[in-house]
Write a structure and sequence with these properties.
With about 550 residues, the chain is of the alpha/beta class. The protein is built from 25 helices and ten strands. The protein has helices spanning about 10-20, 35-45, 65-75, 90-95, 110-155, 165-170, 195-200, 205-220, 245-265, 280-290, 295-300, 320-330, 335-350, 355-380, 380-390, 395-400, 405-445, 455-460, 465-475, 480-500, 505-510, 515-525, 530-535, 540-545, 555-560, and strands at about 1-5, 30-35, 50-55, 80-85, 100-105, 180-190, 225-230, 235-240, 265-270, 305. It holds the Pfam family HTH_18.
């Protein structure tokens, strides 16, 4: 029940309101009646009323002074001010105090009841809003671990690069970002030995990764960083640190030894260059992955810095622009140009000393994996899900690339991955557009009688308004507005022919706010006014409607 206080220096007024208002009908209960503002303020501190009904002219503390004090101490309290004096200053003060209502004496009970009903509705709306907000907060807290994990994935995948947006997202998730710079660690447990594989049941794999994740999460806390299980069987960690590599190496080696002893498995860790900007996390993760992949040459259980790879960590500098053009061509669907740029890269790599050729081609494979994943991410959620289903970039891609036995095999593998992406994105885009057009048409057909905006439609199909308009016109051959108008006119004709509704009612039911505009659109489309169309379908109906037993000629004429 809402708690109510009545404040008036006239006893008859207080008792009249208390007796003649059915308070329970409004979900309210009078908890105190006071004769002046001082008494009321003291009682309010004990009762915390939801609503105070107060007179203005009272001894010791008037109603306006009481209202001001209440708003300062209990800002959610609603106030109805009553007065026997119709003065401008009282009105002005009531507005400034955000009073819910202002009523003149003598109080008309009907008016007071109407105000109480309104206030009850306000409280209900506020209560509902608080419940919805609390539910949203609970849902947010429950999903926060997933949101944090996705945030770290977006950083490491290179999908989040704008520092302002990253900072805002981190603040929303209450995540501290590295302030002194950081390194990216790519961590992967080494394969079990044959003896371990025989002795450990397959079910132990999940338990192992659960234990490893827990230990790495504790390590991330000690490094002031963030962790995610980013790749199948692998982990990405953002470790806050300054540029002192020696100290970092000692700390990581100590953590690594501790985890290996607890789990009886070795870890290989690839470490990026030091990064000063959080927007470089994606680049850092690619560097860490390239470093980790060197375990094929350097052996398992190592900590490998990208800085130590020398020229092996990048595509040859003179081919970097060619590489970027190859990826861009694939992204826009220019398959021939993509193939040409790939062959130019292959030609450039073959000019290198034989000892460097294989390593540079493997770097090319690894970069293609990262860039394809980035492009798929940008193409949208549905496209990414379909890409995973269709095997455009399987989870085993890193291992597949590492097992390639020759430079030509690597060239064909890169071409295959990029070609699959081209066919997937551009074929999927056409399919998605058809789905969007179908959904928009369904909405227009079902909601034609309502107010429909391009902005509303765009939000429902998750596209920008301009993009939706262009896609719709490209596929349908007419604009959304033109298509909607045809639907409305189709239904208008049906209603004119098959119902006795008046023309202004038909205009309203088909989404037109203006009767004259409805008539203009109808006549432009069909060459007849709505009235002329109906009369043509029903000969003699006009005479019957304007005769002595029908509607007036004035009504019929005004419908158009």
């Amino acid at each position: 029940m809402l708690k109510v206080m009545i404040v008036d220096d006239e006893k008859r007024q207080r008792e009249g309101l208390l007796k003649h208002i059915p308070w329970e009908d409004y979900g309210m209960q009078v908890v105190h009646c006071a004769a002046n503002g001082v008494e009321a303020l003291e009682a309010a501190r004990d009762n915390w009323p939801d609503l105070v009904i107060t007179d203005v002219k009272m001894p010791r503390m008037n109603g306006l002074e009481l209202s001001k004090a209440l708003k300062a101490e209990q800002p959610d309290c609603k106030i109805i001010i009553i007065s026997g004096y119709e003065e401008f200053e009282i009105y002005k003060s009531a507005i400034e105090l955000q009073a819910q209502s202002f009523l003149m004496k003598p109080i008309v009970l009907r008016k007071m009841k109407e105000e109480l009903a309104k206030i009850n509705s306000v409280f209900e709306a506020e209560r509902s809003s608080r419940q919805e907000l609390r539910l949203l907060q609970e849902q947010l807290e429950a999903s926060k671990p997933l949101l944090v994990d996705q945030f770290v994935r977006d950083l490491l995948g290179g999908f989040a690069t704008d520092e302002t947006a990253i900072s805002e997202r981190a603040a929303f998730l209450s995540l501290p970002l590295p302030s002194a710079g950081y390194y990216i660690l790519s961590i992967r447990p080494d394969e079990r030995s044959l003896k371990q594989a025989v002795e450990e049941p397959d079910g132990g794999r999940q338990e192992f990764h659960f234990a490893l994740y827990r230990l790495l999460a504790e390590m991330a806390v000690r490094f002031g960083g963030m962790l995610t299980a980013y790749k199948e069987g692998g982990y990405g960690l953002i470790a806050e640190a300054d540029e002192s590599r020696d100290l970092l190496t000692d700390r990581i080696d100590a953590e690594k030894v501790l985890i290996e002893e607890k789990l009886s498995r070795t870890l290989t860790i690839g470490i990026s260059k030091w990064k000063g900007s959080i927007g470089e996390a994606g680049e850092g993760y690619r560097e860490a992955e390239m470093a980790l992949r060197q375990r094929f040459y350097l052996g398992k259980g190592k900590t490998i810095f990208f800085d130590d790879l020398g020229p092996l960590g990048t595509v040859p500098p003179d081919l970097e622009q060619t590489y970027q053009d190859m990826v861009s061509s694939a992204a826009i669907g220019d398959h021939p140009r993509m193939e040409t740029r790939l062959d130019e890269i292959l030609t450039g790599v073959l000019r290198l000393p034989p000892a460097l050729q294989e390593q540079h081609m493997k770097v090319l494979c690894f970069r293609v994996i990262s860039d394809v994943q980035r492009i798929l991410h940008d193409s949208g959620e549905r496209s990414r899900a379909a890409a995973a289903r269709d095997g455009v970039m399987p989870a085993s891609a890193w291992d597949d690339a590492n097992r390639l036995g020759s430079i030509l095999d690597m060239r064909d593998w890169v071409a295959g991955r990029l070609s699959a992406m081209v066919h997937h994105i551009h074929g999927d885009r056409s399919s998605r557009h058809s789905t969007v057009i179908h959904k928009v048409k369904q909405i227009l057909e079902s909601d034609y009688g309502q107010s429909i905006t391009i902005q509303d439609l765009a939000q429902k199909v998750f596209l920008t308004p301009n993009y939706l308009c262009n896609v719709f016109k490209e596929h349908v051959g007419e604009s959304i507005i033109e298509h909607l108008t045809k639907i409305r006119m189709k239904h208008a004709k049906q209603l004119l022919a098959g119902t006795p509704l008046k023309i202004y009612e038909i205009a309203e039911q088909t989404g037109f706010k203006s009767l004259s505009y409805f008539g203009l659109v109808f006549k432009n489309m069909f060459g007849l006014s709505p009235k002329e169309y109906r009369d043509a379908l029903l000969p003699g109906e006009s005479d019957r409607r304007t005769g002595s037993g029908g509607e007036s000629a004035h009504e019929t004429e005004n419908e158009v």
